Task: inverse folding
């Protein structure tokens, strides 16, 4: 094996694509290298629920054949991982739950189909909080994922397996989903790049639903350029998703090199209130200074209802979850209780056994806020406050192009530290939830370290301004090295 | 606001969840905390504010009413615990 092959795992997707094009290595060699690495390292991380080695080697062989005959899509032969929330035909799709431990998806999600259509090679399905409900990956039926920067710490969640695997160089990219921060928070806590596009930008078809007015698919990578590459393939209208938006997809790569001189960056006063770790605040301010050094100007903006975003979310998301998860009844698919006495017993026991504590809690919260006598006080009220929050962002984006701030109030916390107190856990998402409530695109990029743990800079832009986020992040990464740091146990 | 054990039993029944006694005790405590937390919303001034139905204020599309799916009944039923003659089996519902 040549030197270039030995460090294949550390290369970005863009670098790997160049290597494949130049004939330096084949997709089969690349796939084998990464599968070996997954085999050697995943015991420590628990980032995978399923490794699809056979399927991966077959698609790599097909990609190599296509390349040899001058065919192949824009991701031909490049490895990706899928969060185990995306349906993959013929492959177990668990959503991190006992409920779906035996579920083999009978069709591909649109995201899966599009990446496969572009030639990507899927190495496996990543671990996640059960039904994407969690911010630490500890609610997974398959056990917590560990953070490659410190194995005693959480990688964040719910896309924690995707983030940990990309941070540990087990793959250059992975899909994720984000309902309240589930791509951006784990990206921040693992020193990776995570983008949640505008609501409706990427199809939700075949992505197991949690809260349908908030859920959006995106990617976790190590560079903004790779995120642009993947998002360009994943985005676009899909008639199979009733909330998919029919807007043209720009060439995200083409815009990356445009300087950010004159970009108006909004700084939210409320972001630097007491809740933010003081050392993280220093990293965030330094990152904003880097953007200024590149010609961006900063403007102070106000999000007066920021504090209400977490309580609003914890009415809206559980309400939608209680409705979406009613499909799991033990009859057509999923876990079924043994020897049910009658139909009611079958429903109640299948669901009682199949769902974990946090999922049950969210279903019950949602059932409560939607129940007779409480609907107006909670659900309707929350949807009104949601409107106020969205209006705050609309006003802010009249004056700025992006809002920059922290992704998460602290660096990675220790496994076990927050799992017993739901409110403490929920408050982790204070900076990210607003973008979901308002349907805006958001992105986290690595911008420093505190006690050896990564810190993420959070950028939010107006609807369909993913280009701005990607360009700003790419320009930042051209002038900083945070994204190149590799956890020492995985170098 | 604290939820009573009876309220939690009613919610669990509506949600079709069978809980153990231990889970009931924990749910009373944790759901009460969550309800307390979201009660902050009651202080927000939302006079004349419309409830938000969609982040981009989009409307539902219609599509032509034509068959677009192929029949994969057998394949789809491989995920079910109990089927017979193409039908899903459940405990007897009519005595």
Result:
């Amino acid at each position: 094996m040549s030197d270039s092959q030995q460090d294949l795992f550390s290369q970005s997707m863009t670098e790997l694509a160049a290597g494949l094009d130049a004939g330096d290595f084949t997709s089969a060699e690349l796939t084998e290298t990464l599968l070996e690495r997954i085999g050697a390292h995943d015991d420590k991380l628990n980032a995978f629920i399923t490794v699809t080695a056979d399927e991966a080697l077959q698609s790599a062989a097909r990609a190599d054949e296509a390349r040899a005959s001058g065919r192949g899509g824009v991701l031909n032969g490049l490895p990706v991982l899928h969060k185990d929330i995306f349906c993959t035909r013929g492959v177990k799709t668990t959503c991190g739950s006992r409920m779906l431990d035996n579920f083999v998806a009978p069709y591909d999600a649109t995201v899966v189909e599009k990446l496969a259509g572009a030639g990507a090679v899927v190495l496996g399905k990543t671990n996640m909080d059960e039904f994407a409900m969690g911010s630490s990956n500890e609610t997974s039926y398959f056990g917590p994922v560990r953070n490659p920067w410190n194995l005693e710490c959480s990688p964040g969640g719910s896309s924690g397996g995707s983030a940990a695997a990309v941070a540990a160089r087990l793959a250059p990219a992975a899909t994720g989903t984000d309902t309240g921060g589930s791509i951006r928070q784990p990206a921040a806590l693992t020193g990776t790049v995570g983008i949640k596009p505008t609501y409706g930008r990427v199809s939700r078809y075949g992505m197991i639903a949690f809260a349908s007015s908030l859920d959006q698919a995106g990617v976790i990578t190590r560079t903004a350029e790779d995120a642009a590459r993947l998002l360009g393939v994943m985005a676009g209208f899909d008639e199979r998703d009733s909330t998919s938006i029919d807007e043209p997809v720009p060439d995200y790569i083409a815009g990356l090199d445009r300087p950010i001189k004159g970009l108006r960056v909004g700084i939210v006063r409320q972001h630097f209130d007491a809740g933010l770790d003081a050392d993280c605040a220093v990293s965030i301010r330094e990152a904003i200074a880097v953007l200024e050094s590149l010609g961006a100007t900063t403007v102070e903006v106000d999000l007066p209802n920021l504090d209400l975003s977490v309580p609003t979310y914890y009415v809206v998301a559980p309400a939608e979850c209680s409705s979406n998860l009613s499909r799991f009844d033990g009859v057509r698919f999923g876990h079924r209780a043994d020897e049910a006495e009658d139909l009611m017993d079958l429903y109640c026991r299948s669901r009682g056994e199949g769902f974990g504590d946090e999922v049950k809690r969210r279903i019950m919260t949602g059932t409560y806020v939607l129940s007779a006598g409480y609907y107006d006080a909670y659900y309707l009220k929350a949807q009104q406050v949601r409107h106020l929050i969205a209006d705050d962002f609309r006003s802010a984006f009249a004056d700025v192009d992006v809002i920059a701030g922290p992704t998460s109030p602290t660096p990675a916390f220790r496994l076990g530290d927050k799992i017993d107190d739901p409110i403490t856990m929920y408050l982790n998402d204070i900076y990210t939830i607003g973008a979901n409530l308002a349907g805006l695109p958001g992105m986290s990029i690595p911008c420093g370290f505190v006690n050896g743990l990564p810190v993420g800079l959070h950028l939010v832009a107006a609807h369909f301004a993913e280009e701005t986020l990607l360009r700003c992040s790419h320009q930042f990464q051209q002038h900083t090295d945070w994204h190149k740091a590799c956890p020492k146990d995985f170098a | 606001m604290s939820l009573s054990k009876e309220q939690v039993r009613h919610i669990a029944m509506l949600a079709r969840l069978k809980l153990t006694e231990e889970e009931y005790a924990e749910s009373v405590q944790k759901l009460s905390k969550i309800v307390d937390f979201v009660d902050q919303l009651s202080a927000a001034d939302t006079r004349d504010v419309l409830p938000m139905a969609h982040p981009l204020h989009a409307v539902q599309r219609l599509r032509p009413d034509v068959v677009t799916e192929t029949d994969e009944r057998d394949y789809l039923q491989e995920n079910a615990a109990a089927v017979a003659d193409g039908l899903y089996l459940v405990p007897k519902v009519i005595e």
